[in-house]
Write a structure and sequence with these properties.
This protein has about 290 residues and is mainly beta. The protein has three helices and 17 strands. It has two domains: about 140 residues, Diaminopimelate Epimerase, Chain A, domain 1; about 130 residues, Roll (Diaminopimelate Epimerase, Chain A, domain 1). It has a 17-stranded mixed β-sheet that branches. A hairpin with a 5-residue loop joins strand 15 and strand 16. The radius of gyration is 18 Å and the shape is globular. It binds ligand LBFN2T5F. The site of the ligand N[C@@H](CCC[C@H](N)C(=O)O)C(=O)O has 19 residues, from helix 2 and helix 3. It comes from Nocardioides kribbensis. Catalyzes the stereoinversion of LL-2,6-diaminopimelate (L,L-DAP) to meso-diaminopimelate (meso-DAP), a precursor of L-lysine and an essential component of the bacterial peptidoglycan. Its EC number is 5.1.1.7.
């Protein structure tokens, strides 16, 4: 235990096995602006707690200009809670779809939000509204942005990819085979992408068709490597698949998206909003001085 740190509470949770360390910091007095080295130490799967990212749980009232980064809500603004998300490498992202379901589950379990009502949570991509129903959590992820066409590579293999923005950047590539022994490979390294299209890096999704309105995917996440699931990635995949199927928001389509860590249901509504539904659980709590 590092001698210079006072022990503080943490929780561990996951959504379809995309796992997170949660840091309650309601008044912003415990962690301040989380430094990347500490996030890396917390997410380390051998020397730390282990996780694909960190969710700092902080009141918007406690934010100051430097705490939450670009796009953060105004200090003291509504809603009450801000999800301060960091990737495992310590970098900041605008949004985390699986993380925000876990964040809402945590608020409810701690009596900090009423599960009978929609729960608004501020993120760097604006306010998301979350509804809980039994084991499932639905997030209104807002409108998708279908941007240009691009390309991703693994080794010598190239695939066309659709640039979809869900608040954070995605490249969606339809492939014939997801197996780690096939062309997509083990994804130990980030897939190649066009840095002019994605100057801040990209989350890359590889997708195969499983049936009508049913796909399976693997993802290499910016800042976290291959993960077992990515909520924003599943939303990007659904929108790209729907577009390829000749569908748009007016069709109100719903797709099943299978990921290595579980299944998410994604709908694209006539109001041009993407609704993501899936499980979210908090599995442990403790004290750390990392
Ligand atoms: N796993 C997340 C996405 C986390 C952020 C991403 N790695 C990025 O840098 O944009 C999800 O469930 O959406």
């Amino acid at each position: 235990m590092p001698a210079h740190r006072t022990p503080y509470p943490f929780l561990k949770g996951h959504g379809t096995e995309n796992d997170f360390v949660l840091l309650p910091d309601h008044d912003g007095t415990v962690h301040g602006d989380l430094d990347p080295a500490r996030v890396r130490a917390l997410c380390d799967r051998r020397a730390g707690i282990g996780g694909d990212g960190v969710l700092r749980v902080v009141r918007t009232a406690a934010l100051d200009g430097g705490v939450a980064g670009p796009g953060s809500p105004a200090p003291g603004g509504s809603p009450e809670w801000f999800m301060d998300y960091r990737n495992a490498d310590g970098s900041v992202s605008e949004m985390c779809g699986n993380g925000i379901r876990v964040f809402a589950r945590h608020l409810v379990e701690e009596g900090l939000a009423d599960p009978a009502r929609p729960i608004p949570v501020a993120t760097r991509d604006g306010v998301k509204t979350i509804r809980l129903e039994g084991d499932l959590v639905t997030v209104d992820m807002g409108p998708p942005a279908l941007l240009g066409h691009t390309e991703v590579t693994v080794g010598a293999t190239r695939w066309p990819a659709r640039h979809v923005d869900m608040g954070n950047p995605h490249a969606v590539a339809f492939v014939d085979d997801l197996a780690p022994t096939g062309p997509v490979g083990a994804l130990h390294e980030p897939p190649g992408h066009d840095p002019a299209v994605y100057p801040a890096g990209v989350n890359v999704e590889f997708v195969v068709r499983q049936g009508e309105r049913h796909v399976a995917m693997r993802v290499h996440e910016r800042g976290s490597g291959e993960t077992r699931s990515c909520g924003t990635g599943a939303c990007a995949v659904m929108v790209a698949a729907a577009e390829a199927d000749g569908l748009g928001p007016a069709d109100g389509a719903e797709y099943r998206v299978d990921l290595p860590g579980g299944t998410l249901t994604i709908a694209w509504t006539p109001q041009d909003r993407v609704l993501m539904t899936g499980p979210a659980v908090v599995v442990a709590r403790g004290t750390t001085a990392l």
